[in-house]
Design brief:
Chain lengths: 342, 332
């Protein structure tokens, strides 16, 4: 498998299951996605569709007892090469406890988690936890690490950074902690930054500030970003491309303009209609999509979206898996609605 | 932090003061006093004692003064001269009566606690990190046994085993031949041979519950998001376990050290009786029966003071370990 020259990471046919006593949860059921160098991919879908598990698969930190059953995660990396040349590794196949994986974690792929309140240890100062990332991956002295930490904290908009660096997480608000988390994620200048619903747990005004911050940082750092959200509204501001996920699969992918102006998958269309049109009324949850997500233990035959689809074709959608249809410019949808001839 | 320690110290001193007052009053409560008991005993043995003689005797002992004066006198002696008063039955200063035994009791308790933590904490961590392994199951079973066996029964079993199978007399703190001998290498070895048993008996149940607590909190903590974040950061596994979940799991364990001290000190009398150790317990009972109030008062005071001091130490340790308590001035 070869990555295209402009690709940083490509996930193909990724399947992750959780074997539980009550049955097997198919968290990811063949995810395909790819992120280009220096670009922002928005990953959108309702809660439980597998966005976080996809992200965690890249870092190989899926919670127990989850495991990767199938699929590949190819990443371009300089880890393990003496001359700084790039090579490609399949993260799905390497040992998660290997030295290679350890160096890729945060050295090349860093992640901002959804819950800023629990992402930091209450017993260590923020400065300690942030500079730890730098000390783990770069050859710097403790003093340099501290200095860089203060700079990063200032960069993400934390006032009095040189005092704040010695404070504990509980002395920071949720928004400030998430800023600190972003500082920590960028301190090693990773080639890929995963932001897993970084603003979901924050209130609306702070969400807007965070998005602005992310956009500024994006220009300065040049990392590729995988921006996960269940709110299509924020995607328009920040993403270059969008992948829409439903029940452990990517059902539509395309450039942000194509997704917004010419959505193909009925699910994407529903998502777009669910964005409140009046400014300031932006809700935290997707509303107005009919029906419920099936239980994760169930295996829906045919197209996973058919029970909720307004344009379901009887006799086809509930029996046969839909094909992947390409519409040009890398825009594709996995749906029975479009005859293959296009 | 300094303010927090200052506050806690003040609270502790206030508690100690109230405690000493209560102890004194409780001992004053029963009708009669030492003089009466003494005279009663004299009369029983056929001696003639007049009321004036009783009064004189009482005056001599200072028992005719009002209680608050005697309390003040007692307290000032303790605070200024470390003089806990006069034992009426032994006819010597209380410190002399209980000094050795007190040192022994406290030493035994401290060694027991230290050893049980040193052993239990790593075992708890091990059990949690290797959940459902053979080692984990073994420690779990041993832990429940340890918690469920009463100390005195455990002491009897160990005594039986050591006498029957190892042919040693394990009671007391020295073998007969070393009693009243000056300290020597051989005597120290003999001492250690006897000491392991009370340490094991007194420490087992505490160690067992420490293993359980440590294991449970570790299991809880190691799945917390901040641990995953540290792992995602590429921090080596061994380092991150010790730095994050262990650190968090130590808190509830450390916070009980103070109470542990109290339990062990007060739990030792029964064990001490079974193992014939020179503990304070039996002496306390006798002092109470004889209304030897300075002796019983001192023992009661020390037992309770250890509890208060233990709690104080726990509070301070917790604050040192937990930045949230440190900065908010503590949860009441
Ligand atoms: N620790 C876990 N144990 C069992 N199932 C899990 C666990 N974490 C996630 N899942 C399952 O994986 C699926 C995807 O979850 P997730 O990736 O967290 O969704 P989201 O898109 O909201 O981030 C869900 O159906 C969920 O039930
Ligand atoms: Mg999620």
């Amino acid at each position: 498998m070869q990555l295209n020259p402009d690709e940083l990471i490509r996930i193909s046919n990724l399947k992750v299951t959780f074997p539980l006593d009550e049955g097997t949860v198919r968290a990811l059921d063949g995810v395909n996605l790819s992120i280009k160098r220096g670009k922002v991919l928005g990953v959108v879908g309702e809660s439980g569709c597998g966005k976080s598990i996809t992200a965690r698969s890249i870092l190989r930190i899926i919670p127990d007892p989850g495991k990767i059953d199938e699929g590949e995660i190819w990443l371009r990396t300089t880890v393990g090469s003496s001359d700084g040349s790039e090579r490609m590794v399949d993260l799905a196949r390497i040992d998660p406890n290997s030295e290679m994986m350890r160096q890729i974690r945060w050295g090349e792929v860093a992640m901002v988690f959804q819950e800023p309140m629990t992402s930091f240890s209450a017993y260590h100062t923020l400065g300690d936890q942030i500079s730890e990332a730098l000390l783990t991956h770069r050859h710097v002295s403790k003093r340099e690490a501290r200095q860089r930490t203060i700079e990063m904290l200032e960069r993400v908009g934390i006032p009095n950074a040189s005092t704040r660096v010695n404070q504990y997480p509980h002395e920071f608000s949720g928004g400030m902690r998430q800023r600190a988390m972003i500082a920590m994620a960028l301190i090693c200048n990773p080639s890929l930054l995963i932001a897993d619903e970084p603003t979901t747990s924050l209130d609306v005004t702070i969400q807007a500030q965070m998005l602005e911050l992310m956009q500024n940082l994006r220009q300065d750092f040049g990392s590729s970003i995988m921006f996960i959200t269940h709110n299509l509204g924020v995607i328009a501001q920040i993403a270059d491309e969008v992948s829409i996920m439903y029940l452990g699969k990517v059902v539509e992918h395309g450039r942000v303009g194509d997704i917004f102006n010419d959505p193909k998958h009925p699910y994407t269309i529903d998502l777009l209609n669910a964005i409140p049109k009046i400014a300031g009324q932006r809700k935290d949850r997707l509303v107005a999509i009919e029906g419920n997500i099936p239980s994760p233990f169930e295996r829906v035959p045919g197209c996973p979206f058919h029970p909720r689809c307004s344009r379901m074709i009887e006799g086809l959608c509930e029996t046969q898996a839909p094909p992947e249809i390409e519409f040009g410019n890398g825009h594709f949808a996995v749906c029975h609605l479009y005859p293959k001839i296009i | 932090m300094a303010r927090f320690i200052f506050q806690r110290t003040l609270t502790m001193l206030l508690m100690l003061f109230l405690l000493s007052l209560v102890v004194f009053l409780v001992l004053e409560l029963p009708p009669g006093d030492f003089a009466e008991r003494y005279v009663h005993d004299l009369r029983q043995s056929g001696a003639q004692v007049t009321a004036e003689q009783v009064q004189l005797y009482r005056h001599m002992l200072g028992l005719d003064r009002p209680w608050y004066l005697r309390y003040l006198n007692w307290m000032s002696g303790i605070l200024t001269r470390f003089d806990f008063g006069w034992s009426l039955t032994y006819r010597m200063p209380v410190t002399q009566v209980i000094g050795d035994r007190l040192v022994f009791t406290v030493l035994l308790s401290v060694v027991t606690i230290a050893l049980s933590y040193i052993i239990a904490i790593p075992l708890g961590i091990f059990s949690a990190m290797r959940q459902y392994s053979i080692g984990d199951y073994t420690f779990t079973v041993l832990g429940y046994l340890g918690m469920a066996t009463p100390a005195f029964l455990f002491a009897l079993i160990l005594l039986y085993i050591s006498v029957i199978y190892f042919n040693t007399s394990a009671g007391g703190i020295f073998s007969v031949e070393f009693q009243n001998q000056p300290w020597s290498w051989a005597k120290l070895v003999d001492f250690l041979k006897h000491m392991w048993m009370p340490v094991v008996v007194l420490g087992t149940s505490g160690a067992a519950s420490t293993i359980r607590t440590m294991r449970a909190t570790m299991l809880d903590e190691k799945n917390q998001l901040y641990v995953t974040v540290a792992r995602a950061k590429g921090v080596p596994e061994r380092k991150l376990i010790w730095k994050y979940p262990v650190r968090a799991a130590l808190n509830p364990v450390v916070s009980t050290i103070g109470w542990e001290l109290a339990t062990i000190v007060s739990g030792s009398p029964i064990t001490a009786t079974v193992l014939s150790l020179p503990d304070i317990g039996p002496m306390f009972l006798k002092a109470l029966l004889n209304q030897d109030i300075y002796l019983s008062g001192t023992i009661l005071l020390i037992y309770s003071a250890l509890t208060i001091i233990g709690t104080f130490l726990s509070d301070i340790l917790l604050a040192v370990l937990d930045p949230r308590i440190r900065l908010t001035g503590g949860t009441q």
